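Q&A log
Question type: sequence-to-structure
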Amino acid sequence: MVSLLIAVSLTLAGLDYRRARNAAIEDTKASMRVFADRLVDRFGVLSGDTVTLVEIVASVANSLLSPPPERMDDKIAVLREGMSKSPHIDGAYVGYPDGSFFHVVSLKASGWRIALDAPPEAETAVRSIEVDAAGGKHNNVIFLDAEGAPISERPAKASGYDPRTRPWYKAAVGLKSPVSIGPYEMATTGALGMTIAEAHSANGKVVVGADIVLDTIIDFLTAERMSPDTVAFIVDTSGNPVIHSDRAMMERILSPKDAAEAGLSPSSDPLIRSVLSDDSWVGGAARNIDVDGRTFLVMVAPIKSALLLANHRVVVAAPMDELMAPANRALLQGLGVSAAVVAMAIVCALLLARLITKSLDLLTDGANRLQNLDFSTPIAVPSHVSELSVLGKAMNKARNAIFTFALYVPKELVRKGIQSGQFTGRAAWRQDVTALFTDIYDFTTISERHTPEEVVAMLSEYFDIFNTTVDEHGGTIIQFLGDSVFAMWNAPIPDERHAEHACRCALRTEEKIRAFNEAQRSKGLPEFRTRYGIHTGMAVVGSVGARERLQYTAMGDTVNVASRLEGMNKSYGTTILASAAVKSLCSDAINFRLLGSAQAKGRVEALEIYEVVGEIPSPVSGEVAAQAEIHKRSA
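Response status: OK
Response body:
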């Protein structure tokens, strides 16, 4: 039971761990899909809002066609309004073919505020580069509050900035659809950003652009990690990483020359290299890969943005050891709980087993008593286990049935036959035995003078004497024949001194019958005078009878002679007669008196007949008796 409990507990703990492990992996996969979808959605929002702003401004804002300082208020109003609807836009601007530049900047980020040395109350800055008739450039900056009202205005330092040389201007000039540039590190603030630009519908050389700061994307990649060492990065269509959740890796991406010189090229990262080595990952299910002895669960999803990072791929990689940490903790907790449960179950199992084995011991003891035909003690097995209780009741019924049956079958015979192993069906064999026959003198007259009930009562008490005495001397009562008794020695249990024991049994029985007769006289009942015949010889011994009704008995001349000797007591006036064969086996222990030869009925050869007189005391017992007599006299 303990082994079963341990096996079941370990199995359940293993299954629970497997379930927790699979659940952790599935949860991570689902989180990765949600993460990728949210990232794609975020890029979609960024792209959609920015493209909408650029397209509207480039299509309808005629105030932007003329370079600054013309219609400055209109220019400011148009770009501020568009930026207010897209808070992720860092700034919106316009580049002109003469080199003029107009730029509305949000001061929410600290980069621009520091670079422009903006007043604390300023929310927006308007940068402009004006080109005079001589081609000279004048830089100016205006600071606005949250309501768009001017706070201050001052000239700005000349920076040599020319919008016509910038990638966004070159990519969008003359085009009637928006283009995306980046990501790249912004020159002024050093932030990671991208630009969406489009030529004005009325003048293809006037280009409208808007900057998007991607720091929020990096923050998103970092914040949405499934575990401490989870990494997420975005690669372009050429397989080069452009955005990474690790700030140190992002610096290497933004400074490829410095990273290459330091031997820290982003493409040398083993995880990036392993993921990008197989294009079949894109859009597929999450897979496991081994990187530097560590297993990662990796998912690659395409970015389906209309413009911003279109056709790029987002990669999410989470280490399995960290993903499995909760499952491992759950396993340890499960093992701890299982150990506690098993310990408690072992105690309960031992107690239960003790109760069961105690009941089983009682049943076994009862079964052994049944085997020995001992019916003195009922089979009492109190148990709360219904099967044991039912078994105990069944054994009690069997005990009652066997007890009733044993009243009609000599139980000593059955017990000894079971011990000897000779009761195996109908079978017989030749064996030396000593047979004893008894009979009550004038029993017919006694039966005529008393009622059957009285006769049965007297006879039952009389047979009890024989039953006890024969058993005490190692013999077996084969049969009660009316008022006669047929007993036998050396079968079914071997007995080397069977003749001696038969004679001693006859002498002892006669002593008990004398005491029995004294009790009979005191009750006014008749005395039982018993005659005995004893003979030793070869007989056929075994179980004979029908297939379903057997009787253990002995047959042959030996049995017949013993029966005849019992009857010959009438002629000699004796009580116990024995043959010469008996005397030859036990003359050293039993006193015999020779009566001569006689012809037994039905027998050709004459028998030498002896009367069994008494027992010969052993030397040891004689010395003890003599010493006792001397001591008695001296006292």
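Response note: The longest strand covers residues 530-546.
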